[in-house]
Every structure is written in structure tokens, then in C-alpha cells.
Amino acid sequence: MIEVCDLTKRHGSTPAVDALSFRAEPGRVTGFLGPNGAGKSTTLRMLLALDRPDRGHALIDGRSYVRMRDPLRTVGALLDASSVHGGRTARAHLRTLARTHRIPDGRVDEVIGLTGLDGVAGRRAGTFSLGMRQRLGIAAALLGDPAVLLLDEPVNGLDPEGIVWIRTLMRELAAEGRTVLVSSHLMSEAVLTVDQVVVIGHGRLLAEGDVAEIVRTYAGPAGSLEEAYLRLTSGGAR
Ligand SMILES: Nc1ncnc2c1ncn2[C@@H]1O[C@H](COP(=O)(O)OP(=O)(O)OP(=O)(O)O)[C@@H](O)[C@H]1O
Fold first, then answer.
1. Which of the listed residues 11, 199, 202 should we mutate to test ligand 1's pocket, taking the one with most ligand atoms within 8 A of CB?
2. Is the CB of 13 under 6 A from ligand 1?
């Protein structure tokens, strides 16, 4: 379970996130949607204690990230897939992460298999395509078998086969009872993947609810998620 309550963060005089509250539930894929600069990454960064809120809180399974004993086993995150040491092989990268979190090497091989990296695990991450780096980032997120996953634009750089793969993986992770929060710009993709959405603009909550309910409310019975999203975000949040 993810609970964000009255979360606020300013960068100088600009509020990046402004009194934002929402929930993402176990067993569901929650789409975190909003235009460029809406505050999605800043919110995810606060959930991971990479940014400090000015006000409010961001809890994962009832705890803030800094209070977690074993964060990698509680929450897995894909934020910036390029933040991997390019000189290390994919397997070495994952083993280093695993060892610093007392995760057995066997789990490294499991996540390599889960993410389809078997054939390239011995290659340096610096030689990877963006799609392969995304898979490696997802492998790292899954390493601790966490109940909560935060994925920032995971389809970025994936080819059509990769997009189907990540969609299926997210559905499976939710079906296992995990909480999956995924940010996206692509409504056509989101509608195929997510159960509920949280839509933000200018750091504020614009709408939250089941996809069907949001579409019905903001785009009418024959509408699409894209129409609902455009209607919600075109007026701005202020
Ligand atoms: N470190 C920073 N310093 C100053 N301003 C920042 C910083 N990080 C984010 N911002 C600003 O905060 C706002 C929210 O940015 P954020 O990256 O969270 O949005 P986003 O919804 O993730 O956007 P995108 O979809 O483009 O990734 C933007 O106006 C951005 O310019």
C-alpha cells in the first residue's frame, strides 16, 4: 500500500508537488499520470526519500522509506534506467546490489530470467540499448521480491515485444497481491495496463479512481482515457 498525504515540495518559489494526497492499493496497478513537469518524478523521489518533503508524508506499507529496515525487500523502484555503472556487467551490477542487501546470488539469476536478460547478463551495462537498461532496472527493482513497485515510465525505450512483456509483468505482479505504481504519458498504453489512475497537474491531484469511472466521469460513456486525461489536464490545476 502506498499512502501519500498532503505531500508538498517546492523548488525555489515553484511548487513541484502541492498538497498531494492519494493511495495505491495492493493487488492493483495504479497509473500515475500527468503532463511533463506535473510532479510525478518528484513524488516518486519523495516516496524513496531521495527528496525531502516540505510538508506531508509519503508512506509505503505504513512507513516512510528512511524508517525501513530492509528497503529493497519492501519497495523496488525503476527511476532512471541510465543510473547504472556502465563498466559493470549486468550480473555484477545485480550481485553487488544483492550482496549489500543480504540477498542470495540465486535471486540474481532468478531476476535475470524474469526480465529476459539471460543472453546478455555477462555484457557490460554500458553497451546496453535503452530497452535492455530498462529491463536491468526492472531486474534490480525485483531483486528483493518487494510487495511494492514504483516504476517511472517503464515502457521508455522498449520495442513492441518489450511493451507487451512489461505490461504482462505488471499485471502478474499485481495479481500476486503487490502494489504497482507506474507513471506514464501514454494513455493508449495505460488503459491496457492499469486498474486505477491518479492524475496530477502542477503538483496537484486532478482525479483519482478506477479507469472506467474516470472515463465515464470526464469523457462520457463512449469516451476514452485519453479524452478524460486531456480534459482533466488541459485546464491546468491552479
Ligand atoms: N531539482 C530540481 N530543481 C528545480 N526544479 C525542479 C527540480 N526537480 C523538478 N523540478 C521542477 O519541479 C516540477 C515537477 O517536476 P517533475 O520532474 O517531478 O515532473 P514530472 O511529472 O515527473 O515530469 P516528466 O513527465 O517530464 O518527467 C517541474 O516544474 C520541474 O521543472
1. 11
2. no
Does ligand 1 have an atom closer than 6 angstroms to the CB of 184?
Answer: no
The rounded distance, in Å, linking the Cα atoms of 116 and 172 is 15
Round to whole Å and give the CA distance between 67 and 103.
Answer: 20
Ligand 1: nearest atom to the Cα of 185: 25
CB 226, CB 42: distance < 8 Å:
no
**The model's pTM:** 0.94
Please give the Cα distance from 83 to 77 (Å, whole number): 12
Tell me the pLDDT tens digit for each residue of 43-87. Answer: 999 999 999 999 999 999 999 999 998 899 999 999 976 677 878
Query: pLDDT digit string (tens) for 91-130?
Result: 999 999 999 989 999 999 999 999 999 999 999 998 998 8
| Ligand 1 contact, 135 CB (< 6 A) | no
Q: What is the pLDDT of residue 82?
A: 67
104: left (phi over 0), alpha (psi -120 to 50) or beta: beta
Q: Grid coordinates standing for 217?
A: 466521469
Cβ-based burial of 137 (10 A; exposed 0-12, middle 13-18, buried ≥19): buried
Sequence-ordered list of residues with C-beta below 8 angstroms from that of 223, at least 6 positions apart, any chain: 215, 216
